[in-house]
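Budget justification aside, the reviewers requested a transparent look at the raw inputs and outputs of the sequence design task funded under Objective 1. We therefore reproduce one unedited record. The lines immediately below are the structure tokens for a 164-residue chain.
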């Protein structure tokens, strides 16, 4: 588990390793496990904001992912050491817009990016609900700290086939 501050720009998750059981028949990291690596880092970032398992238990609320856009840039192989980052791009009353990058920890190359929108959810009602004031204040501090990074060039991408 990382000890990174939510105000680090960007938030850097803990070192992870590509497991052999995560490989596909092409011999590289299966696409599903990129999400595992990114999601682990989001969990670490949100825990640092006070939105971990204790938050769910004491406040009966959590966050759910509503949408994700993942771009695969360079393959990862078995035993590759990796880390992910999180940048809070924006948030409003009930949502957070996050951008992530996944790096090979030794060679330094960018392997993938992920962009997502998360929703704050009242677990009792199973409906989207406003962030509590203390969490909203932490999100604001994180957003201000991450603003120095600027908007990521790869953020806001869309998927389509352009006709020539």
């Amino acid at each position: 588990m990382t000890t990174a501050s939510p105000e680090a720009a960007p938030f850097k998750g803990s070192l992870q390793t590509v497991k052999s059981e995560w490989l596909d028949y092409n011999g590289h990291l299966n696409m599903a496990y990129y999400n595992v690596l990114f999601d682990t880092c989001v969990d670490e970032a949100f825990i640092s904001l006070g939105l971990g398992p204790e938050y769910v238990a004491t406040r009966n609320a959590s966050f759910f992912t509503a949408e994700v856009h993942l771009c695969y840039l360079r393959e990862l192989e078995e035993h590759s050491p990796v880390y992910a980052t999180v940048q809070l791009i924006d948030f409003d009353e009930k949502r957070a817009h996050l951008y992530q990058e996944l790096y090979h920890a030794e060679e330094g190359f960018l392997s993938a990016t992920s962009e997502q929108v998360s929703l704050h959810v009242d677990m009792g009602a199973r409906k989207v609900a406003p962030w509590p004031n203390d969490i909203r204040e932490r999100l604001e501090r994180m957003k201000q700290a991450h603003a120095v990074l600027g908007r990521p060039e790869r953020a806001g991408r869309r998927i389509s086939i352009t006709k020539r």
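The radius of gyration is 16 Å. Residues 96 and 125 are 20 Å apart (CA to CA). Computational costs for records of this kind are itemized in the attached budget.
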